[in-house]
Design a protein that fits this description.
- This protein has eleven helices and six strands.
- It is of the alpha/beta class and 258 residues long.
- It folds into two domains: 10-112, no CATH class; 117-257, Rossmann fold.
- α2 crosses α4 and α5 runs antiparallel to α7.
- It comes from Bacteroides reticulotermitis JCM 10512.
- InterPro entries: GGGtGRT.
- It holds the Pfam family GGGtGRT.
- This is No significant homology.
Length: 258
């Protein structure tokens, strides 16, 4: 499909984008778009369908990344995801936090982990006041299993039980109400309510009262990979939960290996 190549801060991004494309034998974004179209793919539209409010630079980043994956001749989804990350990284503005922390490469590597069998359970550590995590979970639940032998379990773990139930009801997820015993550290499932009967119902949505319950939820599901998003609760919930759980898992692995 012919589209005008136009996106936010294009003048600040274009040098890095062209460098990444040229390094992979592609002249420019227009050629990248043509490569995708010739393969019967429309990453621009796929990105837009996944998150309708996304920026134009996100849509074109996936066009560039997909073209690079095709040019590299990637034969499996995980390898393609890593190649797409090159395209995402190219769109990071030089000098920005995203560029410094290799956010684009990180996203590609994250997707690759979710597509490989070693990862059994993936968690969005969410603020639950944002729908971005829900939109991502919907797409992962619908698409990831197409290339996996064992279905990927996907959960949302956020702050607030009422918020979790609302998110579940709106999106058709399965709401899991839990109760945490602060004396024994035991987590009990009070009830589960599936708000649909399709792929979305496979996404379990938890609402924790605090960090300790959030960590217990991670242990209950045996989460292998998790991410946090931009929200109002990262320093009081998501980051402490992720950090504590990772520390405990790492310690357990070291004890087992001794």
């Amino acid at each position: 499909m012919i589209r005008e190549v136009k996106f936010e801060s294009q003048d600040r991004r274009i040098k890095g984008i062209l460098a990444a494309l040229n390094a992979n034998g592609i002249k420019d974004i227009e050629e990248a778009n043509a490569i995708c179209e010739a393969a019967g793919l429309d990453p621009y539209k796929t990105c837009e369908e996944t998150q309708p409010i996304c920026f134009e630079n996100a849509k074109w980043a996936y066009v560039v990344g997909t073209a690079i994956a095709l040019k590299k001749g990637c034969k499996n989804a995980a390898d393609a995801a890593e190649a797409i990350g090159i395209g995402l990284q190219a769109f990071c503005i030089p000098g920005s936090v995203a560029a410094d922390r290799s956010v684009g490469i990180g996203h590609g590597n994250l997707a690759a982990m979710l597509l490989r069998e070693e990862t059994k359970c993936f968690a969005f550590l969410a603020g639950h006041e944002s729908f971005a995590a829900a939109e991502g979970a919907i797409k992962i639940a619908a698409k990831a299993d197409k290339v996996r032998k064992e279905p990927l379990r996907c959960i949302l773990n956020g702050l607030g039980k009422d918020a979790a139930q609302i998110i579940s009801r709106i999106n058709g997820f399965t709401y899991v109400q839990t109760q945490f015993d602060y004396y024994t550290g035991e987590l009990t499932v009070v009830r589960e309510i599936a708000y649909s009967d399709g792929a979305r119902a496979k996404v379990k949505c938890y609402g924790a009262d605090d960090v300790r319950e959030g960590v217990a939820i991670m242990w209950k599901e045996g989460v292998d990979v998790s991410i946090t998003g931009n929200s109002t609760n990262p320093t009081r919930f998501q980051h402490p939960v992720a950090g504590t759980y990772k520390k405990e898992r790492t310690l357990l692995k070291s004890l087992i290996s001794q």
